[in-house]
Amino acid sequence: MPVNRSTFLRRGVAVVAALPLLTLAACGYGSKSDNKETTKVAAGAKKIDGLDSVKIGYFGNLTHATALVGIQKGFFQKELGATKVSPAIFNAGPSEIEALNSGSIDIGWIGPSPSINGYVKSNGKSLKIIGGSASGGVKLVVNPKKIKSLKDVKGKKIATPQLGNTQDVAFLNWAADQGWKVDAQSGKGDVTVVRTDNKITPDAYKSGSIDGAWVPEPTASKLVAEGGKVLLDEASLWPDKKFVITNIIVSQKFLKAHPKAVEAVLKASVEANKWINANPDQAKAAANTQLEADSGKALKPNVLDPAWKSIQFTNDPLASTLNTEAEHAVKAGLLQKPDLKGIYDLTLLNKVLKAEGESTVDAAGLGTS
Question: What's the pTM?
Answer without folding.
Answer: 0.86
